[in-house]
Amino acid sequence: MTKSMTSEDGGAEQAVVRLENVRKEYGEAAALDGMSLEIRAGEAVAVMGPSGCGKSTMLNMVAGLDRPTSGKILVHGEDLGKLGEKGLALFRRHRIGMIFQFFNLIDDLTALDNVALAAQLTGTPARQARRRALELFDELGIADRRHAYPAVLSGGERQRVAAARALMNRPALLLADEPTGALDSRSGEQVMDLLLDLNQIGQTLLLVTHDERLATRCASRVIRMADGRIADERTLDAAGVQA
Q1: Which of 127, 161, 197, 217 is the most exposed place for a label (fewest CB within 10 A)?
Q2: Does the pLDDT of residue 224 top 70, yes or no?
Q3: Of 37, 33, 24, 34, nearest to 208 (Cα)?
Q4: What is the span of the domain harbouring residue 144?
Q5: Per the domain annotation, does 41 fall within a domain?
């Protein structure tokens, strides 16, 4: 892989994500209960915890897909609470890359067109978007599958296409929601290698996962949530051992 896949923004000391005392209520229940978190440029942070602990809610907040009841969320210096719906949509297209558990590819578009579409939605000319997509396909080792439709791709190949789509606009932050959850063990290993490689060349990652192997292999910091709060946090060395 080459440096063309990394974000063009920010130095190693910049906080890419900052949550300040974030609370999210659904009726009388609090999915997030005063959560504070900072993720610096180049970090890979894995968030773990039981179902219902608030980790997916937190990810949706960072992606600008949901709004907090109270507190502040800043991503790459942008206060999401000050953005309207149009502003949030533009923020997601330009600043955030997302990889989902079930890929979310468009079935009637080829792999290449799925990826190029992400750039075209930001106003990038089609020819330029396809050129960028082809570069990513080559770097991710799936250039020979560029004309295939999602239905004929393996799980690992589909997740690599999804990763290429997420990286099209050189996002400041890559979010991954259970990226190995729908994959067999071999495809899961391929996706872990991909995420590890991306982080090693400087991409900031925020992963939500139940997979302990993914967390310890790909993350430099593991956060465990319980009842909408951070219950535990540990820093890992390059070998996945607690530092």
Answers
A1: 127
A2: yes
A3: 37
A4: 14-235
A5: yes
Is the predicted pLDDT of residue 201 greater than 90, yes or no?
no
Residue 242 lies in a domain: no
Q: Please give the Cα distance from 23 to 243 (Å, whole number).
A: 30
Number of domains in the chain: 1
Indicate if the pLDDT at residue 122 is higher than 60: yes
Q: What is the mean pLDDT of the chain?
A: 88
Nearest to 94, CA basis, from 105, 83, 109: 83
Confidence (pTM): 0.84
- The CATH number of residue 117's host domain is 3.40.50.300
| Residues 36, 77: Cα–Cα separation, whole Å | 16
The answer to whether 99 and 176 have CB atoms below 8 angstroms apart is yes
pLDDT band at 241 (very low <50, low <70, confident <90, very high): low
At 11, the pLDDT band (50, 70, 90 cuts) reads very low
Looking at residues 66-78, what average pLDDT do you find?
A: 94
Any domain includes 227: yes
What is the spatial distance between Cα 48 and Cα 209, in angstroms, rounded to a whole number? Answer: 6
Measure the CA dihedral 190/93/60/113, to 10°: -40
